[in-house]
Amino acid sequence: MKIVMFGAGGVGGYFGGRLAQAGCDVSFVARGAHLEAIRRDGLRLVSPKGDAHVAPVRASADPAELGVADVVFLTVKMYDVDSAAATLGPLLGPDTMVVTLQNGVEATDMVARHVGRARTAGGVAYVAAVIEAPGVIRHTALDALIVGELDGALSPRLVALRDVASLAGFSFTASAQIQVDQWSKFARLSVFSGLTAATRSPLGVLRAEPALMALLKRAVHESLAVGRARGVELPASVMEEALGMVRSMPPGAKSSMLEDLERARPLELPWLSGAVVRLGAESGVPTPTHALIETLLRPFVNGGPPPMA
Questions:
Q1: Is residue 257 within 8 Å of 269, Cβ to Cβ?
Q2: Torsion sign, CA atoms 251, 301, 124, 215
Q3: 73, 147 Cβ separation under 8 angstroms
Q4: Are residues 159 and 194 in the same domain?
Q5: Residue 66 neighbours by CB under 8 Å, 6+ apart
Q6: What is the b/e burial string over 241-271, where b = at least 16 CB atoms within 10 angstroms of the residue's CB?
Q7: Burial class (CB in 10 A: 0-12, 13-18, 19+), 123
Q8: Chain centroid to CA 264: how far?
Q9: Cα distance between the two ends of the chain
């Protein structure tokens, strides 16, 4: 099975590195200094689950140089999904699976407009990992992938991907209800990302402050209410699962949005708390906590300090 990770940041770099470490045929679409370091020195993972160095690594800024793939994991940020999906053509064969691994719940529809619904699969990534330096991915917590066909089928290509991923040492689930899985993560991540970024603090700070934990619970409730109003059958257990995740992660864990804020990079805010507010308004569901988060972070959405009046 030929796999292309379209994006070699925290998500694509970590899972692609683990798959390559297990002997899978993995190529990367990357850019800039990160691409040059990967080409020159290979890809390094620094992780509590064991460090790894994968070399040589096939990587390019041009998908056409990599050829047709069996599976493409699209791991770019939400603000790059449309432009990236428009360049996937050289990677696509008649049965290529394009797996969306974005934060939020809107990427599958965006990608399907470019490659067709038959090629599109939904994905969920649970991982805390960032580019620490060019060619180096630092992983701190979680390492699980969930992938599912949009029609819920356990297709031959999904089974084949599951079998390959079982060699890589991370958790992989072939899902029959990927929309529920995506919204379950969205309910957690929209809150984790929003509150850690709004407070400029890792998770341990939120856990230590009862008022922030109360705010967190209200925000999760809003996200779940929006999903249910839109017809997603989210189980009651998602709230406790979200709190369990908050309790179990290391105190220093930061969301990728906080990492981006600290590095003056653009934020995925419009597709996280912003999406909760937008979709809530469409569905008649009040979302005051997410509205507060969006308001506090909106000046930084394009990266860098906001302009002063």
A1: yes
A2: positive
A3: no
A4: no
A5: 4, 27, 29, 58, 60, 90, 91
A6: ebeebbeebeeebbbbbbbbbeeebbbbbbb
A7: buried
A8: 19
A9: 55
Q: Is the domain of 194 the same as that of 116?
A: no
Peptide bond into 306 cis (omega under 30): no
Q: Which two tokens stand for residue 42?
A: 């290979």
What Rg do the C-alpha atoms of the chain give, in angstroms?
19
Structural domain boundaries, residue 155: 2-176
| Local confidence pLDDT in tens for the 309 residues of the chain | 999 999 999 999 999 999 999 999 999 999 999 999 999 999 999 999 999 999 999 999 999 999 999 999 999 999 999 999 999 999 999 999 999 999 999 999 999 999 999 999 999 999 989 999 999 999 988 899 999 999 999 999 999 999 999 999 999 999 999 999 999 999 989 999 999 999 999 999 999 999 999 999 999 999 999 999 999 999 999 999 989 988 888 899 888 899 999 999 999 999 999 999 999 999 999 999 999 999 999 999 999 877 787
Q: How many domains are there within the chain?
A: 2
Supply the residues annotated as catalytic.
Answer: 185
Could you tell me if residue 309 is inside a domain? no
Say whether pTM exceeds 0.70.
yes
| Residue whose entry in the numeric block shows the structure tokens 């379950």 | 184
